[in-house]
Amino acid sequence: MTGEEKAKTFTQVPDVRLRRCGYCMVKQPLRAKHCQACQQCVRRYDHHCPWIENCIGERNHPLFVLYLGVQLTVLLWALQVAWSGLNFQSFSWLWLQCHLLLLLSFLLLTICTVIATLLLGSHLYLVSCNTTTWEFMSRHRISYLKHCKVENPFDQGVLLNLWRFFCACRLMAWEKLYPSEETELV
């Protein structure tokens, strides 16, 4: 089924009820979750990032993906600078003593670059599917997903998902995109 056909089947569903958060006692919109670290409910909760010490949700997720892209660019630049300082033509014990710090920096930068590439790649994949890290990892525990017949009820095709993620500046009413249970999607 194409994204266009899937988009036509989305309707307002009256039986999708808003949950009440057990911690802050507010009605949570669909795809929201209470973050234990921040002690607040977050719309379209993705994850709590320990590196920036903040939740990643609907309002800052595009900026987080941009942050990962900038971080990867800086790491690639630093990797190139470190590599240009290493000259292996006169490799000896003396060379290793003089260049050990640069060599260790290069290895550390390589590890960080691989991690940043994997993080950016996984987030871009999840964005293109219009799912969050929390939904991807905990689908079996999320009330609105565990009994859903469609694998991802929010997916509207790669291009529309990317457009809405990076270019739409408004908050989404996710309840309007949820397919009704009697609609059979093949």
TrEMBL record:
Location(s), subcellular: Endomembrane system
The transmembrane residues are 64-83, 103-127
What does the record list as GO biological process?
Answer: protein targeting to membrane
What's the superkingdom here? Eukaryota
**PROSITE patterns from the entry?**
DHHC
List, alphabetically, the InterPro entries matched.
Palmitoyltrfase_DHHC (IPR001594), PFA4/ZDH16/20/ERF2-like (IPR039859)
Q: What is its main location?
A: membrane
Entry's Gene Ontology molecular function annotations: protein-cysteine S-palmitoyltransferase activity
In short, the EC number is 2.3.1.225
Q: Which family does the UniProt entry place this protein in?
A: Belongs to the DHHC palmitoyltransferase family.
- What is the protein named? Palmitoyltransferase
Q: Which organism is it from?
A: Thamnophis sirtalis
